[in-house]
Amino acid sequence: MTARIRTKAQALLRAHEYLCKAFFWIGGCLICSIAFTVSYEVGMRYFFNRPTSWAIDFAEYSLLYGTFFGAAWILKMEGHVKVTVLQELLGPKARVIVDFMNSIIGAVACGILFWRGTLDTWDTYVRGVLHIRPVTVPKWVLMWIIPFGLLLFGSYFVRNAFSLFSQMRDLGADKE
User: Fold this and answer.
1) pTM of the predicted protein model
2) Domains in the chain: how many in total?
3) Whole-angstrom Cα distance, residue 143 to residue 118?
4) pLDDT class of 142 with cuts at 50, 70, 90
5) Is 82 helix (H, G, I), strand (E, B) or coil?
6) Does 12 score more than 60 pLDDT?
7) Which value, to the nearest 10 degrees, does the dihedral of the CA atoms of residues 40, 41, 43, 44 take?
8) Which phi and psi angles does 131 have, rounded to 5°?
9) Cα(41)–Cα(54) distance, rounded to whole angstroms?
């Protein structure tokens, strides 16, 4: 029974990892598309005197989606900015404890923001709120990525916390 549960858990973790990596690449493509969109806008405006009405909106939406699509994978790769001055002064066990606490705090923060973002997104969907710009879209289409991205982001904090908890147990066992 335990082996079957472990196998299913590993399959779920692999699927989560694949999903986060796929969204990271989609987010990266969206971020890259901003350069092309803005370049197109500049060319149309200055060389042909025919500015677009959609380029700035597309760039803004791509930046939003790209950020939330990529955050979880970047956390997994430890690519986020860290201030490690204090951690470098600590010993290995204290460093693992601080990292564990950071992961717990990150998971809780993402959980709270996920919940609040879900409520706000649902509210804009139910009320039919529109984002009035040159490209008018329902506001929930822009907002759903926030709770979704925070769910993926928070799940990596939880995964990190479990991994660090195992490290803390191993470090504690080594001293005995």
Assistant:
1) 0.84
2) 1
3) 9
4) very high
5) coil
6) yes
7) 110
8) -95, 100
9) 9
Dist. CA 105–CA 99, nearest whole Å: 10
The pair of three-digit structure tokens given for residue 97, joined into one six-digit string? 């404890």
Mean pLDDT of 17-25: 94
What are 113's two structure tokens?
């923001």
Q: pLDDT, tens digit, for every residue of 68-122?
A: 999 999 998 888 887 778 888 888 888 888 999 999 999 999 999 999 999 999 9
Q: Tokens 């690449």 — which residue?
A: 25
What range does the domain containing 73 cover? Answer: 2-175
pLDDT attached to residue 133 = 87
**Element holding 137 (H helix, E strand):** strand 137-138
Closest among 148, 63, 141, 143 to 114, alpha carbons compared: 148
DSSP, residue by residue, 22-78: HHHHHHHHHHHHHHHHHHHHHHHHHHSS---SSHHHHHHHHHHHHHHHHHHHHHHTT
3-state secondary structure of 101: helix
Local structure of 138: helix, strand or coil: strand
Q: Which residues contact 40 (CB under 8 A, 6 or more apart)?
A: 52, 55
Cβ atoms of 87 and 98 within 8 Å: the answer is: yes
